[in-house]
Amino acid sequence: MNRLSPIVLVFVSSCGWFPLLPDTRTPADRARAMTTKCAGESEQRAAGALSATLVEAVEPAYATVDSGNDRVIRLRGARLHLRPSLNVSSEALERTLECHQARVALGDCPAMVNDPYVLPGAWLDIDVDSTGDGLVAAVEVSRFDDARLVLDRARRFASARP
């Protein structure tokens, strides 16, 4: 087993991923990694999913993390509650939002005003889940200052709906 460990370490480090170190890829690096997944996506097809009229409510997204012998609640971003009017799966909507973020990060399209799915200089973790009567898009980031910006942008985006 000792002979296998260096081989695994070399393989994992050559892939650019090492689980004990923070991810140092830039948003552009992450966006470029998504290009093959987003080949069939376009901003025109995504327009319905990016509409502020779909947003029913916005709430803070929190995470509980261990801190010594205690657990601390940290702001991670925003949870956007979306109307179920798209007739798409949560996975398809998640891909659409991630591809939108990638296109904006690469400069292929402009961000919307107060775009809740994009934060300049940061890569957002987007996770869409079904709630039974709608969808929730959790848009999260690890830095607290960025998390506040994500929440503020999401609230302004939702308040701009007609």
Q: What can be said about this structure in brief?
A:
The protein has 162 residues and is α+β, with helices and mostly antiparallel strands.
Radius of gyration: 18 Å
Distance linking N and C termini? 62 Å
Residue stretches low in confidence (pLDDT < 50, at least 5 long) are none
Number of strand segments: 4
Strand content: 15-25%
Structural class: alpha+beta
Task: Tell me the helix content.
Answer: 25-40%
Strand line-up in the sheet with most strands: 1-2-4-3
Q: Can you summarize the main beta sheet? A: 4 strands, antiparallel
Order of helices and strands: HHHEEHEEH
Whole-number tally of structural domains: 1
Give the count of helical stretches: 5
Taken from the alpha-carbon principal axes, the silhouette is: globular
Mean of residue pLDDT?
86
Describe this structure in words.
The protein is α+β, with helices and mostly antiparallel strands. The chain has one domain. Helix content is 33%, strand content 23%. It contains five helices and four strands. The chain has a four-stranded antiparallel sheet. A hairpin with a 4-residue loop joins strand 3 and strand 4. Helix 2 crosses helix 4. 28% of the residues are buried. The model has no long low-confidence stretch (mean pLDDT 86).
